[in-house]
Amino acid sequence: CSSDPEQGSSHPLGRALLAAHAALGTPLPAAKDARALPGQAALARVDGTDVAVGSPRYAREHADLSAAEARVAQLEDQGKTVVVLLVDGAVRGLIALRDEPRPDAQVAIQDLRALGVTPVMLTGDNTRTGQAVARTLGLEVHAQLLPEDKLRLIRDLQRQGGVVMIGDGINDAPALAAADVGVAMGGGTDVALETAHVALLRPQVRAAADLIRLSRATMRVIRQNVAFAVGLKLVFLITTLLGLTGLWPAVLSDTGATALVTANALRLLRFRGGEQD
């Protein structure tokens, strides 16, 4: 029953519930009027009953969660994300999920710091879960964030400098659009991919560090090419005006400069980032 409202969901927790149900080998009943409340819950009508799968905060606002509060706190202290199942406005169960960091997350964070980037984690998970993951990775964390909270934090961070936002879910879309550069992870939702400025084809955190390296290398090449081309033209402009060189040497130098800056730009094809596996 808990996976019924998640049919068609692109949220990581929704996909996890659907995968767990698929492993049971039983068919899902049809869900009607399914809708999502970003950062709060997924709702649907199943076999004539109203079913909601949502956060404890959503459950507290729409049902009596007092009998399950101790268990919710216990699970969250273990670093798990708790999902509450509501049927016709009554609490019918708790589901605990643990979001493990991606295998390359620790290395990616080290790479980003080496590049002078300060990583900050924004999550809709509860504070205990967010802090547990942040301790593992050594990150500053802001938890229990709704999409509008992430947007506000992005704008606050922009007062301190340029901000790159990396996300993959529908809840990340407003922040991705507001960031100086929005980066959608491979395998993310369509909304995130359409909103972001850049899409990473590899679903690896380390690809973000590679993106920054490639961007900086590209800017270096652009500056080199502009400086070389403008400098060479100035030299031949001055020497031509002084009568030291004629028209044909200037034409040949311009053609040669085009070939050289093109060859310099082609060096970017040799760029290799982190592990591709």
Structure, described:
With 277 residues, this protein is α/β, with parallel strands linked by helices. The protein has three domains: 12-97, Calcium-transporting ATPase, cytoplasmic domain N; 104-208, Rossmann fold, CATH 3.40.50.1000; 220-270. Helix content is 47%, strand content 18%. The protein contains ten helices and ten strands. It has a five-stranded antiparallel β-sheet. The protein has a three-stranded parallel β-sheet with strand order 8-9-10. Strands 6-7 form a two-stranded parallel ribbon. A hairpin with a 2-residue loop joins strand 2 (41-46) and strand 3 (49-54). It starts with 11 loop residues before the first helix and ends in an 11-residue tail after the last helix. The model has no long low-confidence stretch (mean pLDDT 84).
Task: Describe, in short, the structure shown.
With 277 residues, the chain is of the alpha/beta class. It has 10 helices and 10 strands. Strands 1-2-3-4-5 form a 5-stranded antiparallel sheet. A 3-stranded parallel sheet has the order 8-9-10. A two-stranded parallel ribbon has the order 6-7.
Percent of residues in helical segments?
Answer: 40-55%
Query: What is the element string, with H for helices and E for strands?
Result: HEEEHHEEHEHEHEHEHEHH
Query: What is the CATH superfamily of the largest domain?
Result: HAD superfamily/HAD-like
Q: Give the terminus-to-terminus CA distance.
A: 37 Å
* Biggest β-sheet description: 5 strands, antiparallel
Mean pLDDT: 84
Unreliable spans are none
